[in-house]
Amino acid sequence: MTAIEAIILNFEEIRGRSITIWSGLTPEFYHWKPDVKAQSCIEMIRHVIEVENIYRLLIINKGGNVSDFDSPWKDRPLTDLQNELEFAAPYRKEFLKTIQSYTEVELSSIEIGRNERKTRNLGDFLNRCSYHESVHAGQFLSYLRILGLDRPNIWY
Q1: Measured between alpha carbons, how far is 125 from 113 in angstroms, rounded to an integer?
Q2: What would the mean pLDDT of 78-82 be, rounded to a whole number?
Q3: Contacts of residue 34, Cβ cutoff 8 Å, sequence gap at least 6
Q4: For the chain, give me the number of helices (H) and strands (E)?
Q5: Which residues contact 151 (CB under 8 A, 6 or more apart)?
């Protein structure tokens, strides 16, 4: 397995577990949030899938500010999990295709410069992208616990 294949596998494994976790939420709790400053459940799902497209644009442009890019999700109403996943599917496909277009050498030679953050090589940046979703997966599990809902088994 190449480094690129391992990175893609990691993204696919994390997303599969995220979807399993998100599917544990019942529709009446989509807009629930633990406090006024927190994201609601559906906002967190949107955030995770939307930011992946921003990551793709940051990779293609070798950096920039998150605010430099227009989001296809702008002005889209928050509805339900299935709608969010269906809308995100082509962007997810492009994100993974973008990663696959790079070589192992480029993982360490390409730099992604984010004005608001430290410049990182592509491999490090991709690792942080997957970590971001993992953190939110853990956060979402805590939401389910607070709501008293069953937490799906993601340790398969």
Answers
A1: 10
A2: 96
A3: 143, 146
A4: 5, 2
A5: 21, 24, 141, 144, 145
Q: What angle do CA 149, 131, 119 make, to 5 degrees?
A: 150
Set out the domains of the chain in order of their start, with CATH numbers.
3-8+39-147 (1.20.120.450)
List, for residues 92-151, the tens digit of each pLDDT value. 999 999 999 999 999 999 999 877 778 889 999 999 999 999 999 999 999 999 999 999
Tokens of 87: 């809308």
Identify the burial level of 145 via C-beta atoms within 10 angstroms of its C-beta, where 0-12 means exposed, 13-18 middle and 19 or more buried: exposed
Instruction: Record the tokens describing residue 3, joined without a space.
Output: 């480094």
> Which tokens sit at 142?
């805590």
Instruction: Check residue 155 and give its pLDDT.
Output: 85
Residue 88 tokens read as 């995100």
Q: Which structure tokens are listed for 120?
A: 């990182």
Q: Which two tokens stand for residue 43?
A: 């906002």
Q: Which residues 6+ apart lie within 8 Å of 98 measured at CB?
A: 56, 59, 60
pTM exceeds cut of 0.90: yes
What is the Cα–Cα distance from 133 to 131, expressed in whole angstroms?
5
Closest Cα partner for 73 from 58, 52, 93, 59? 52
